[in-house]
Amino acid sequence: MVMVALGTLLLWSTAGHHVSEAQPLTHIAVKPLELHSSSRAFPALKVLHAQAPSATASVIPAPIRRDEPQMARHTIEQGDTLFELATRYNTKVEHILQHNPEVNPDNLKIGDTLKVPLNTVQHTKTREELGDIAAKVTMSSGGEPLGYKRKIACKLTAYTSSYESTGKHPGDRGYGITASGSAAKEGLTVAVDPELIPLHSLVYISGIGPRYAEDTGGAVKGPHIDVFFNDDQMAREFGVKQANVYIIEEGPRESD
To answer: Could you tell me which residue ranges the LysM domain spans (predicted)?
Structure first.
């Protein structure tokens, strides 16, 4: 009878505990996992950890967007133009304007700071790289370069750095400089319509040889190539010709 009474008393005492007086809930949750030694218990544990929010999640920085270009800050100096800045930073004028909508491209103010995106145009081959390719060009028995990409029947004219051709005098900013940013050079430079032949392309002109598409011109549209000469008299004597033009190496096309 004494044992029965003690057992009854014990049961009554346990049932009367409040939650705050029971064992901590963390112990109750952990003990079943500690009792299992089989590997099946660990995948469940991993799932719990994956679902639980990290204590430091709120301070992890957002990932860098790879589609956003790196930016430079340029303080406008005397003589700066958007075209020259675009060439210097390997970007486009329109890309600079997108990041500086308040700027008037025809009235840059000295001392103002521009946000300039970097390297937003594709890689272009240098003269040295194009020269290496040109040196390896071989001709067929029919007089055509082997391995060309496109063939275009073009009108050929000639130009120089003179005011008659470019509207600039010696000493003017940009005098003798091509649209690609390099100095025009006889035996290398031709002006093209970049919609047809992208800048930085290597072309082979029948009767002339390899040339680099480095310049553009207001009158150079469609299948028309302007060949650069140093001497005005030679340019005039060149006149107007027709020739097949072969695209050996095509430069990157302009894209937004």
So the answer is: 72-116
Rounded Cα–Cα distance for residues 246 and 211 (Å): 10
Domain 127-249: CATH class, spelled out: mainly beta
Q: Do residues 166 and 175 make contact, with C-beta atoms less than 8 angstroms apart?
A: yes
Each domain of the chain, given as residue ranges in start order, spans 71-117, 127-249
pTM reported for the whole predicted model: 0.56
Distance CA 212, CA 226 (A): 11
Q: What fold is seen in the domain 71-117? A: Membrane-bound Lytic Murein Transglycosylase D; Chain A (3.10.350)
Residue 140: burial class (beta carbons within 10 Å; 0-12, 13-18, 19+):
exposed
Residues present in the chain in total: 256
Q: What is d(CA 80, CA 71) in angstroms, rounded to the nearest whole number?
A: 18
Instruction: Find residue 212's DSSP bridge partners.
Output: 189, 202
Write down the residue that tokens 């799932």 correspond to: 47
Phi first, then psi: give them for residue 22, nearest 5 degrees: -80, 180
Q: How far apart are CA 244 and CA 156, in angstroms?
A: 10
Q: Which pLDDT tens digit goes with each residue over 122-164?
A: 777 888 889 999 999 999 999 999 999 999 999 999 999 999 9
